[in-house]
Amino acid sequence: MCSSRGNTWVQTRNTPPVTTPIDTTTAHSQPVATRYHAFDAIRGAAMSFGVVLHGAVAYMALPMPGLVWPIEESTTSRIVDWLFWWIHGFRIPLFFVVAGFFAVMLHNSRGGLEYIRHRTKRILYPFLVACITILPLVGAAWVYGWLDSNAYTWEQISHLDFGSEEVNDNAAGLAHLWFLEYLYIYCVAFWLWRAIVSKTGAPWRRSDRLNRIARSLFASPLRPIVFALPAFAVLAVETDTIIDFKNSYAPTPMELLYNFLFFLIGTWLYAFRDRLGELKSFSRIYLLGSLIAAVPMVLLIESEIAVGLSAARQLILAALIATFCWLSIFAWIGLFLRWFDRHQPVVRWLSDSSYWVYLIHLPTVVVLQVWMTHVQAPAMLKFAVVLVIGYAICLMTYQLFVRYTAIGVLLNGPRGKARPPRKPSSDGIAKADVPDNRIAAADTVGRTR
Q1: How many C-beta neighbours within 10 Å does residue 235 have?
Q2: φ, ψ for residue 174 (rounded to 5)?
Q3: Cα(274)–Cα(21) distance, rounded to whole angstroms?
């Protein structure tokens, strides 16, 4: 059974111990409660990093190819460029790993039909609503920026003819909402796969040899290198999967495949949920390794954008991106298990807000960037102002207009406010001041309760 206590992940199960790592349907024999505070915090952080990423775009010296932005700042900073590529290299893959992990948990606790219903309510419905509400706001912010800077005329904008093939190809699309489209596709694919497995029995899950291989892969300190191999295979075919942005309404095949690898490995990691603590001892080493790998990675990315790379150097870049990504993923999982593997009300609230923050931050950040073009200040100062004010606006609107409203129900499920303190009972003992347990706890895009 999957439940929530104090807005915290709790899973209670009554099945035998996990002896088959590649069989993600197996669970424990005695009732246990597992709280995934750290994973929930990771999910929130990965989504909130989007504010930093998009807040940085206007101040990059060498912008991301295909990422059409309505502001061309006269002041830029190479520091912002490095920060952008560092975050971009691991943020979305980390999110999909966590999403895959919780996909197994939700499917096991609720069954296949309830799983896909839940994912439809928490991902597809918000995605469709955002397409007709938030996406027009994004378009309006872009038009405002273009007109304010005299980059394009109203006639060019209305005809979507900007005199540039790159702008014409990327002016219309899902913008930042693409990840919801991809996530729902992955959830449907996982649901169909589990349905096939339940029909066929999947005899490979009981293979002792495969189980030993799975255990050795997870136990090895070199696990980031091993897990980087599938990502490297995709990037070796097309490094533009990471370096270029393609704004469209339909998924890009290579990008869809690349991110699916992380979702898939996240489902596989669920079998090792009782051993995730082992990552804590390697977290600092992995983080150091990721920072070292980031230096040549960013240098080669900038060279690829500026002048292009030879085929050999593109393979080196693909290897660096894949290795950096998995070093970062295991580093952050280990570090969050160290720091946030317990209930912390502020972290819980920030994590709950992250879905709304990600949906609404883009038009907010862009409007602030347009205003800041009229201010004479260094790029880093402008970036900091946009980041702080933009994030504050997103958090304030979440608390005032989302958390306990119909919007919050759409994004996170029903939520109850804390009851006022009760008077002591006749035995002199005051009852605990807790939320109404009759109201289901939040269900969000990357987790379930």
Answers
A1: 25
A2: -85, -5
A3: 11
Longest dimension (CA), the chain: 81
> Which pair of tokens denotes residue 237?
């075919």
Q: State residue 445's pLDDT score.
A: 60
Tens-digit pLDDT profile for residues 358-386: 999 999 999 999 999 999 999 999 999 99
Non-local (6+) Cβ contacts of 399 within 8 A are 353
**Structure token digits, residue 119:** 């994912």
Q: Which two tokens stand for residue 181?
A: 């489209």
CA–CA separation, 309 and 240 (whole Å): 12
Cβ atoms of 54 and 361 closer than 8 Å: yes
For residue 4, report the phi and psi dihedrals to the nearest 5 degrees.
-130, 140
Whether the Cβ atoms of residue 449 and residue 415 lie closer than 8 Å to each other: no
Domain coordinates of the chain in residue numbers?
Answer: 2-412
pLDDT digits (tens, 9 = 90+) for 389-444: 999 999 999 999 999 999 999 998 887 665 555 555 554 444 444 443 333 333 45
What the block records as the tokens of 103 is 């996909």
Count CA atoms closer than 13 A to 308's CA, side-chain side: 2
Question: What pLDDT, on the 0 to 100 scale, is given for residue 429?
Answer: 45
pLDDT of 204 over the 60 cut? no
Instruction: Give CA–CA dist 344/61, Å, rounded.
Output: 39
Q: Which one-letter DSSP state was computed for residue 399?
A: H
pLDDT at site 232: 97
Residues 38-83 pLDDT 10s: 898 999 999 989 999 999 999 999 999 999 999 888 899 999 999 9
